[in-house]
Amino acid sequence: MIFKQKWSMALLSVLALLTLSACTEDQTKPASTSNHTTEEMDHSTMNHSSSGEVPATLKIAENPKFPVGSTAIITNGHMDGMKGAEAEIVGAYDTTAYVISYEPTTGEEPVKNHKWVIHEELIDPEEAPLAPGTEVKTDAAHMEGMENALVHIEEAVQTTVYMVDYTSTLNGEAVKNHKWVTEEELTSK
């Protein structure tokens, strides 16, 4: 009889624990949260290298701080592997650069605070600079799903933008004709 009571009590305790644990909220955090911030953007679909073609209306900088053929250090990498990399300047252009947010045409998660799309990569924009909050389409193809996407202007910066060649500090990959690095993201060697 005592054995039967102990066994019943043990079974009742186990059932009570199972019931209570099933009623509690899941305290685990999701495996990932949106990582599309200015410094933590997922660039796995980014075309790090390009053909080097630029819009026909893009104005070549007359007196850039970093002339074509010179080298500089990337100080503020907006992608993994850029910060601290030595960059060779392959193009310098005066324009308005934009930080944008958009929903990719591929249906992927929204991209927030992407750096950089230039004024000449926008489709039928008003005169530069566009005000934050403006929505316009882009023909830039820096990332999969960017081309023809409706973008939301977050910030506009009148600057010299550079097309650069560099070697990733993350994986040693050679990147050719990367679009775009702003003058503020570079420093002399």
Automatic annotation (TrEMBL):
Keywords from the named record: Signal
Signal sequence segment: 1-24
Pfam families hit by this protein: DUF1541
Stretches assigned to the DUF1541 domain: 68-119, 132-183
PROSITE patterns recorded: PROKAR_LIPOPROTEIN (PS51257)
Region (Disordered): 25-51
InterPro entries linked: DUF1541
Superkingdom of origin: Bacteria
Protein name: YdhK family protein
